[in-house]
Amino acid sequence: MIKIKVILALFCLLLISLLPTWAVGLEYKVTGLGLGGTQSFAWAINDSGQVFILQDEAIYLYDKGNYTNISALYNIGSGYYGVSCFGINNSGQIVTNDSNGHALLLSGGVKTDLGTYGGILSLALGINNSGQVVGEYWDSSWDTYAFLYSEGQMKDLDLGPSSGASSINELGIITGWYVPQDSYSYQAFLYNNGVMSNISPFGSQQSLGYDINNSGQVVGEFLTTDNSAIHAFLYSHGEITDLGVLSGSYSVALALNEMGEVVGSSTALVGIEIKIVCNERENECHEVEVPVYQDHGFIYEKGEMIDLNNLIPQNSGWFLSWAYDINNKGQIVGVGFYNGEQRGFLLTPVPKRSTRDLGLKRKLSRWIKISIAKE
Q1: 304 — alpha (psi -120 to 50), left (phi > 0) or beta?
Q2: In what helix (H) or strand (E) does residue 368 lie, and over which residues does it extend?
Q3: In this predicted structure, what is the pLDDT of residue 290?
Q4: Are 253 and 220 in contact (CB under 8 A)?
Q5: pLDDT tens track for 69-127
Q6: How far apart (Å, rounded) are the C-alpha atoms in residues 177 and 164?
Q7: Which of 321, 328, 327 is nearest to 345 (CA)?
């Protein structure tokens, strides 16, 4: 009997240690990113947790608490056309821009100018783990064209003027935007082995694709059919989901991971403002309640858009406005405000224990103590 109780006690101790993984929902630890007190923006993150940061017209790599000045390391200028930062892959390769307006690939201490395909400017927007780069270039008429840079060469995707490629997955499938010949507005596309497919949601006349994962899922934004709002969307194997909004009339999905977790920004109702409206003809004035909205970062998972500000400690001092990227560990980067100053952030998921879990843990602990005391 003593051996049985000891075995039971050991089992319960193991059970207690596992309880935090039975989380109900998520919450995040917030890490502020950037050096000093000036504005900073966290644009992209890879699966190792390396983060691409823009601050003071220079780019930095954040890696486990350490900062590397990428602009200084690669001698990147900060002129009129630079710098911008958009992508980092799991090998630590980075795509950005130089001060001359040329797209750059930074890898292992080597800076590669991707050129402009005979145009005047180019912009790198995305990179996959194979080092393939996508973006857009400008011709002499200032029209933009989507490109793929692969094996040392830039290729025009033949999508016509006013097109751009924003993301490429490991299979080489690309998403972005283009303007069809019979339209005047951008529409989202999928490009696979030379074949382009229009994936504009619900026949929308305006949409843009921003990110694609290895399953071929695409996220972006689209103009609703009644032309009243712009909503985030998720395209998945031919099916399109309107992700809706937190409140208001605007949302955009900027990134997703391999689990289909989506991040972006949405307008959210934060209060009511009283305004005085006057009718000059009738010489009358009256008070009107006007809703006040702010941009809030969100995560969309399991069919629900969740305000990231509800998933961080209430006394953190942070307000999260835009979520730009998410990796396969669920870490999120973006920009918000810390005590009123605009700063880049890194969110790291931590288990959220429910009150039911905590109660069960206390009961098991008491049972073990009583059992040992009796023996």
Answers
A1: beta
A2: helix 355-374
A3: 82
A4: yes
A5: 999 999 987 665 656 667 999 999 999 988 889 999 999 999 999 999 999 999 999 99
A6: 5
A7: 321
